[in-house]
UniProtKB/TrEMBL annotation:
Residues 39-392 form the FAD dependent oxidoreductase domain. The lineage of its organism: Bacteria, Pseudomonadati, Pseudomonadota, Gammaproteobacteria, Pseudomonadales. It comes from Pseudomonas marincola. GO terms for molecular function: oxidoreductase activity. InterPro entries: FAD-dep_OxRdtase, FAD/NAD-bd_sf. It comes from the Bacteria. Keywords: Oxidoreductase. This is Gamma-Glu-putrescine oxidase, FAD/NAD(P)-binding. The keyword Protein transport does not apply. Coiled coil: none annotated. GO terms for cellular component: cytoplasm.
Length: 437
């Protein structure tokens, strides 16, 4: 299949993805050396860390970002590139914690999160192939009924973008497959090149005076009224600390680490399709996603490759042959692509929380330590919202959104470091079995 082999997760270079091959800028930042002082030290150079840095720098604070690998190395630079409204899954479940008004605010922030990305791209003129148009795909009639309810609720929230329900006989308008029984078009969501967005945001942060360091894994943190963040070759002394590592937090903070489960997600990219082929499979160049637990998500790249993603592994080990694993899934949706070559295959870790709501707050007992993690596969927009909320909270500005997220309790996954993944895998298997009942 001529698929290019992805790099192991411990590599300090970007995964050998289509995104890395088509990155439109090359940036390199030196490792941290010596001692620095700053108002805020941020650990993690992905969307959460970079956007928090931008927000803080715009408020006049001095910021240092420490990234263990390269800017955008983790999920921020590897994901499916789908920019979809909403934060969390079924936020109505938190009514007893935040009240009806709080639930409504969560839903409004899910809309605002996409707009933050839109404005970031516009303000800093970031070339990241931002394209509007998304369609939720119904696998079963009950999914379509749920879409109708979603559309009515969005309208009640004042959603300004076009929403349109599709019946079974209209599905060929958006996807060249007979697999689905309906859909919901949303022209306020869309897709983009995530690594180019992350690299553009790193450049934006640097232009605002943020100090960025790569190959600077944090080895130790000393907490206190002033935090000391140690790397192999330097230390940062800061008044505030932000932990923005998500699925790659590891053992850096075991309290937070126990509340987020790393799960592998995988993507393949085909060779470039002809204009006719591309129009046949995704006629309106939308991002698309189905409703199953082990969902499929896919879209076209700017050079007309099909980027097809999905799966969810909890073992911490990538499949030996990602293309061999994902290609059959692609062919179930688009069997007429059987002669199409897969040219790229890669994977990465997403962070999943037990209740599927992003975890944004202060570390218990440490008022100057903040965190954001556990976006559960919907991080492109939610990370940007997290950056805004963290920026407000650290700068001492009133932030109702930050307070709402901080109110929601998050359980630690049972089983400890070695058993939590198998236990969750068993739970996900149960949900998949329910899909076929």
């Amino acid at each position: 299949m001529n698929a290019r082999v992805h790099q192991p997760v411990h590599s300090n270079q970007h995964a050998a993805s289509y995104y890395a091959a088509s990155a439109n800028r090359s940036v390199a930042y030196a490792p941290l050396g010596g001692e620095l002082r700053a108002d805020v030290c941020i650990v993690g150079g992905g969307f959460s860390g970079l956007n928090t840095a931008i927000e803080l720098a715009q408020k006049g604070l001095s910021v240092v970002v420490l990234e263990a690998h390269k800017m955008g190395w983790g999920a921020s630079g590897r994901n499916g590139g789908q920019l979809i409204r909403g934060v969390g899954h079924d936020v109505d479940q938190f009514k007893s914690v935040v009240g009806e008004e709080g639930v409504r605010d969560f839903k409004l922030m899910g809309i605002e999160a996409v707009d933050i990305v839109r404005k970031r791209v516009e303000q800093f003129n970031i070339a990241c192939d931002l394209t509007w148009g998304y369609c939720d795909l119904a696998n079963k009639p009950r999914d379509l009924a749920g879409f109708a309810e979603d559309a009515e609720e969005l309208k009640s929230l004042g959603y300004q973008h076009e929403l349109r329900l599709l019946q079974p006989n209209q599905m060929r308008e958006v996807v060249g497959s007979d697999r689905y029984v309906g859909g919901l078009i949303d022209m306020g969501s869309g897709h983009l090149h995530p690594l180019n967005l992350a690299l553009g945001e790193a450049a934006a942060a640097e232009s605002l005076g943020v100090q960025l360091f790569e190959d600077s894994a944090v080895t130790r943190i000393e907490y206190g009224s002033q935090v000391k963040v140690h790397t192999a070759s330097g230390v940062v002394l800061a008044n505030n600390l932000v932990l923005a590592c998500n699925a790659y937090l590891g053992e850096l903070n075991t309290n937070l680490g126990g509340k987020v489960l790393p799960a592998g997600s995988y993507i393949i990219a085909t060779e470039p399709l002809s204009e006719e082929q591309a129009k046949a499979i995704i006629p309106q160049n939308m991002a698309l996603c189905d409703q199953r637990v082990a969902l499929d998500y896919y879209r076209l790249s700017a050079d007309r490759r099909l980027l097809f993603g999905g799966a969810c592994h909890y073992s911490g080990r990538d499949p030996a042959d990602i293309a061999g694993y994902m290609r059959p899934k692609m062919l179930e949706v688009f069997p007429h692509l059987r002669d199409t070559k897969v040219e790229y295959q890669w994977g990465g870790m997403i962070g999943i929380g037990a209740n599927r709501l992003p975890q944004i707050g202060r570390l218990k007992g440490q008022n100057n330590v903040f965190y954001a993690q556990a976006y559960s596969g919907h991080g492109v927009n939610a990370t940007h919202l997290a950056g805004k909320l963290l920026g407000e909270a650290i700068a001492g500005q009133a932030s109702n959104g930050f307070d709402l997220f901080a109110k929601v309790p998050h359980i630690t996954f049972p089983g400890g470091k070695y058993l939590r993944s198998p236990l969750l895998a068993m739970g996900m298997l149960w949900h998949r079995m329910k899909e076929v009942l």
